[in-house]
Amino acid sequence: MTTLLRAIRQLLRLAVRCDARRLTRAVALLAVGYLSTPLIAVCLKSLTTAALARSAATGTWLALTTALLLVLELMMTHFAHLSYFELGELEELALQNEVISLAHGTTGLEQLDRPGFADTLALVREELPRTRAALEAVLQLGGMALQLTVTTVLLGLLNPWLLLLILAALVPVAAGNRAQLLIDRAKETAAPRIRLGRHLLELATAEASAKEVRLSGAEAVLTERQRRDWRSVTATLWRAQASAALLRAVGQLVFAAAYGGAIVLVVRQALSGGSGLGDVILVITLAAQVSFQVSTTLGLLTILQGAGRTLERLHSLRVAHRPDTAASTGTSGVPSALTVGIRLEEVSFSYPGSDRKILDRVTLDIPAGTALALVGENGAGKSTLVKLLCGLYRPTGGRILVDGVDLAEGGPEEWQRRTATLFQDFARLELRLRDNVGIGDLDLLDDDAALRQSIDAADAGPIPDQVPGGLDGLLGHSYGDGAELSGGQWQKLGLARALLRRRPLLVALDEPASALDATAEHALFERFADLATEARTDTGAVTLLVSHRFSTVRMADLIVVLEQGRISELGTHAQLAAAGGLYAELYDLQARVYT
Ligand SMILES: Nc1ncnc2c1ncn2[C@@H]1O[C@H](COP(=O)(O)OP(=O)(O)OP(=O)(O)O)[C@@H](O)[C@H]1O
């Protein structure tokens, strides 16, 4: 019940914030519409009495009044709908905006990696459209409460025993409440399996995986797994639905018995001369209305309970959301140009929810202007180190200093604005081509010349000519009929995005050539050398390259070999080749394979 009340309060507050005038208009119109219903019963009673008394004039007026009330009952709710349906959409939009800011409200990615936070975020994202109908439900519930109050007073005045009818109406409401709880619990229990079922469906049909699924003939395996999964989900949900249906039926039966009792009571009262035929008509009409009011209330409560749970989840995200104090102070320790460089001091790191050390007491000095290459086997921690250097995660031990200032305290947001990055799992933004590149430096989003310059620099010059609409052409098929690009072309756009950033202090390219052909790869590494020189002379920036291709890292000023989260070798190509360690071994191996 507290979930429900909290949801009602929250939805009304939000509606006031979104558009108080529209809300007031909707409430006024609904009040008139909903009040008309019990007044119709009163008119029918008077009409019966007037008919029995053969009073034609009074009867005519009452008939007209009844007709007017019927029109008001029907029309006002329609007009009110015009006011509140848009409010519901505004509320959904406001909540969507809040979800986006909760997901991105911290400088780092830690909270998105926390399993509880990520799961709740996914549920809220999925369920948010429910809240659109929730305001309508709150307003209608208010209308129902008004109707029930008037009905209660009318019944109480006629015979206090009739008030038991209202009490009896609470039984199906409580039973419905309980039934919904059972269903919600079952859904929660089944949620991981429901998600698995959807994931399996996506695996079998999504463009990215469909090819391999087809070639391996795995459809049958996926279908069987999905069938098994849904069978167990359906069994759980069916049990809950059956118990819920039973509970609801018992509740409705109690009310039906009370309804019959009320009619018997008032008929006996009429037969004994205690009341007139008009009163019998009034009770029959009001009791029928109570029945409708109760079943409608049940439906509205079900909608509100669903929305209430979503809002509760959203609240838990708000509570779990931990804004960075350093980011909010607005103090920036980020220099306009690097003079000393970046120092990693005993840096250790474990991902949220895990004790496994991905980086283990890494200490490294990267002087300003250095072109650094990071190599190591799969899973050694290279991409993790890049993410830490970009300020997307904070070290769980040790610290990262930028020109002597701790990154965690010196304005991590400002630092992120000064990093140009191409991640290994770069984003394929299925938006306009302009957005794909422009997001690298939002101030340049509408600067065609700057966008084209970075596209050319990334060796992606022909792409705008291939995409219908050029820079304003849509990419991908997610929501529109956009142009599809090859893997390498997407990667080149990712690089163009990184190159757009002005005056970066850190340029980090993580496996930037993984999808490129040999010519493009060669061009990229030549470009990398130029980039390192430009960045060095411009802002003293550090340029970082992660690559498994040893021939391309040899020109770096400093090469770091990571092994299981620790630095095992460090030096120039010549030094490492002479040292005869892992680097020399892998370099020789690749040289032999490629020659
Ligand atoms: N978001 C994450 N949550 C939990 N563990 C993660 C996450 N990202 C990476 N890891 C783990 O951290 C370890 C290091 O991953 P990382 O991506 O840094 O390796 P890498 O050296 O870049 O490997 P590769 O050469 O394959 O790209 C891996 O064992 C991986 O399972």
Describe what this molecule looks like in 3D.
- By secondary structure, the chain is an alpha/beta fold.
- The chain folds into four domains: 2-159 and 275-320, no CATH class; 160-247; 338-418 and 504-595, Rossmann fold; 429-502, no CATH class.
- 66% of the residues lie in helices and 10% in strands.
- It is built from 20 helices and ten strands.
- The radius of gyration is 34 Å and the shape is elongated.
- Adenosine-5'-triphosphate binds at residues 113, 351, 354, 358, 376, 378-384, 424.
Short description:
This protein is an alpha/beta fold and 595 residues long. It has helices at residues 2-52, 56-104, 110-113, 115-127, 131-158, 163-205, 207-216, 219-271, 277-320, 325-329, 382-389, 412-417, 433-438, 448-457, 463-466, 487-500, 518-539, 550-553, 573-579, 582-594, and strands spanning 341-349, 359-367, 371-376, 397-402, 405-406, 419-422, 506-510, 542-546, 558-563, 566-571. The protein is built from 20 helices and 10 strands.
